[in-house]
Each structure stands twice: as structure tokens, then as C-alpha cells.
Amino acid sequence: MPNDCPRTELAPDTRDGADLQRILIVSDAWAPQVNGVVRTLAAVADELMAMGREASVIGPGEFRTIPCPTYPEIRLSLFPGRKLARRIEAIAPDAMHIATEGPLGMAARSYARHHKLAFTTSFHTRFPEYIAARTGLPPALGYAWLRHFHAAGSGMMVAAPNLRSELARRGFANIRRWTRGVDFSVFRPNPREDWSFPRPVFLYVGRVAVEKNISAFLDLDLPGSKVVVGEGPQLAALRRGYPAVHFAGARRGAALASAYAGADVLVFPSRTDTFGLVLLESLACGTPVAAFPVPGPLDVLADEAGTVGVLDADLGRAARAALTIDRARCLAYAETFTWRRATEMFLANLVPARG
Fold it and tell me: What is the reported pLDDT for 5?
């Protein structure tokens, strides 16, 4: 989309969702996948139920699936339309949220349009850039399709202010704010993993995939040790290319929190993430972060850049500078992000399925 595209103003968030009891979330990203989208939706569903709502999530585990090309850990639902329709009708939701743009999301969108049901969507992932990294296709093509997908909804939820502004410039409409949170019963400063590696320990957490730009971290000349927590299609190649790096595999829950807490700095090399939930999780464990000054890190750290993390075009300089940050300040800042607040925003953004 050219830069001179007319700007679309962000839609005001004025509802509270008080009359919406049965809430359905349809997502192509769901357990056993491990990523920020899954953790976000799971946390919101739990909070909705704690608030007395009925929250249902329809994910690919309920359907026949095939592995996603170039990313077999992700399963894509195969012809989900009829079964999905029966599930939606059985749930009879007061509000429906389509979280992803994959086969389930497209089938849910088609069902809703056919039955004249209103729904909301959310923008979690920069698929145009990810596809471009793998195929060379221009991102503009992907954004044109995404505009078409989300335009059918009554509102598109986006976490980061910089991303919301960018999408508005790209012609997306009816954009609504939806922040993120941290589960402080899981992510906390103790217990800390004793990595038994030379200190300082610089940590990466996330999918091990080309779009995460992990080599930008692994190529850095840093003291101590580098640890990668996560799995993905690039794992085998990175193991071969960086034998001095410690690859710890995927971790969840308390084991993941311990990994964060036991690190000296979380290094976040991605330039394309829409938010960066791992940044908040790391800060909640008292571990400062280092990242490029790009959307996502800029939004998470906001005015606290320099006090809980360092953003620098020189990622190595950012990582070294982050070693001096007060870990107590990291925790205090993370505590301003709660899943209850995020869920209240989500609920306020929903629309009645039937007018």
C-alpha cells in the first residue's frame, strides 16, 4: 500500500460487553502449539470464565489436519466448514471472535457472513513479511488479502500502538486496542534456573524460525553464554551452525519462567513481531531485555526504554547495556500489565453476534 493511502482513524472502544455471556473464539493457533498467540488466547479464555462468562475455543485439534508447509509443527485444518458450522450452532455464541486468518478463520468468516452474524477479528502476525521471507512474494499482496479478510468483521483488535498506526496507513479500518498481560502466578523472579554456563547468560525465547531473525543474536560477540529456548523449523540448521550455543528445547509454565529468571538478559532479535509477549514474561521474572528499536519492543517498553530494557540498532550494544539494569524495576514495570485488564479490553471490543 503506498504511503499516501488515506489514514483510517482508530475506532473508539465504548462498549463493556456486559450483555455477552457465551463467547466463542475460533483460532488456527491453539494447543499443543507453543507461541504468543496461543498463550494470549488461553489467558483471555481463562479470565473470561473467571469473570463468569462461558468461553469456548475452537481450534485445529477438533479437525483433520495437515502439517503447514515449511512449518510442520503447525497443523492446518482440512475442510473444516461443515463440522465447524455444527460446533458454532451448538455453542450459539452471543459474540464470536475470529483470532486468525488460517483455514479455521476463513471457514468461520464464511459461516458468519452466510448467516449474517457479526464478529470481531484480531491481527497477531505479520504473515506478509513471513511469507516474503520464505517465498519472495511482495508483502503488499499479503496485506491486500488481509485487508479483505478483516474488512468483513465489525472490529479488528491490535495490541501495539505503532502497529495500529501502520495498519491504518495500509488501509485497515475499525481498529481497536487490545493489550496483553502476564500470569504472575507463573512468571516470577524465583526460582531461577542455574544454567551452569559461564555468566552472563543471554537468552532467546520463542519460535526457532527464519522470521525471528535469531542469527542476529547468535552472531553477536558477547561475553558468557547464549541460550535458545524454543523449537521450530530452523532448529536443526542453527544447531549445526552454532555449536557453542546451548539449545534447551521448548519450555512451558514454571520451567519457562525459571529459564527467564535464570538469564541475565533476554535478547529479542525479531524485527517483525506484532507485540512480543516474551518481553513482558521476561520482565515479570526480573530479567531485562535487549531489542532493536522497532514496533513491538518500542510499544512494550514505551517510556521505560533504558530503565527495564535497552533498544538499539546495535543489538550487541543493547545486550551489554542491559546487564546494568535493576531487575526490581523490571518486575515493577511488568506488574502494570495484567490479563484481567487485557480481557476487559477484549470483552469491550466484542460485538453481539446477532443485532
Answer: 34
Q: What is the per-residue pLDDT for 208?
A: 95
Residue 82 inside a domain? The answer is yes
**SS3 state at 338:** strand
Q: Which residues of the chain have pLDDT under 50?
A: 1-14
- What's the domain range around 235? 201-334
- Cα–Cα distance measured from residue 175 to residue 186, given in angstroms and rounded to the nearest whole number: 31
Same domain, 145 and 246: no
The predicted pLDDT at position 294 comes to 93
Instruction: Please report, to the nearest 10 degrees, the dihedral formed by the alpha carbons of residues 194, 199, 204, 205 taken in order.
Output: 10
Tell me if 118 is assigned to some domain: yes
Q: What is the pLDDT of residue 72?
A: 79
Cα(131)–Cα(274) distance, rounded to whole angstroms?
15
Q: Which helix (H) or strand (E) holds 260?
A: helix 253-261
Asked if residue 343 and residue 316 are part of one domain, the reply reads no
CA distances from 79 to 69, 82, 86, 107 (A): 17, 8, 13, 8
Instruction: Give the number of other CB atoms < 10 A from CB of residue 56.
Output: 18
- Reading the block at residue 117, the C-alpha cell is 452474524
pTM: 0.86
C-alpha triplet 283, 160, 304: angle, nearest 5°: 40
- The pLDDT value recorded for residue 16 is 63
